[in-house]
Structure prediction request, 215 residues.
Amino acid sequence: MNRKLIVSGTLVLLLVLSTGCGQKPQVSPSNGVTQEQVGADGNSDSQSPDNEQGSNNGQGHAGDSDSGQSGNGANQETGGNSVNEKKTAKIETYFSDDQMLELQKVEQQITYTSDEDKYLAALKALQSTQDQKLFPLWGKAVFNSAKLQNGEVAVDLSLPNEARLGAGGEAMALDALKQTLFQFSEVKSIQLLVDGQQVDTLMGHVELEQPLTRN
Prediction:
């Protein structure tokens, strides 16, 4: 009889202990969330590290794209403004007739990029003409520069031996140069230099009174 009571008591105790263990929730040591809570929610609300990194990368690429487009636009605008616009003007130039007896006036169009270049372009227009009956008195000369300062144009030129003319040709060449430059109202006088040096005569025949002035 006592043995049956002991066995019965032992079974009841085991049943109680077994039931108590089955109802106790287990706690995850990492984040304090019970297994029962995870099973009920199904998914955690926090984003995974991979998802967060993907989102950040997407934002970074968009910013880079905008910066690239902005930079390209600025470069294109700067490039457009760096181009120099050419100007044109019709001027009167002077050549000798085929007998070198008198000057003939010819209207020509010159092209230049700044007002400083205008005078040099005008002088170079004296070096050639499409009219075969006219002779360019400055055809063999080399015009190095022509700069205006305080109403005076300083003309620096070189004269190879083949560019030198006789007395009549030298006088006509000087007259052609003066009439060409003095058509610009801002030019009041002309200073002639040969290879950077002031001279008393260009070709050895006509004495120069420097600077040359309007008649």
User: Anything to note?
Assistant: The CA atoms of residues 166 and 205 lie 7 Å apart. The mean pLDDT is 77. Helices lie at 2-23, 35-41, 49-81, 115-124, 167-182. The chain is about 40% helix and 20% strand.
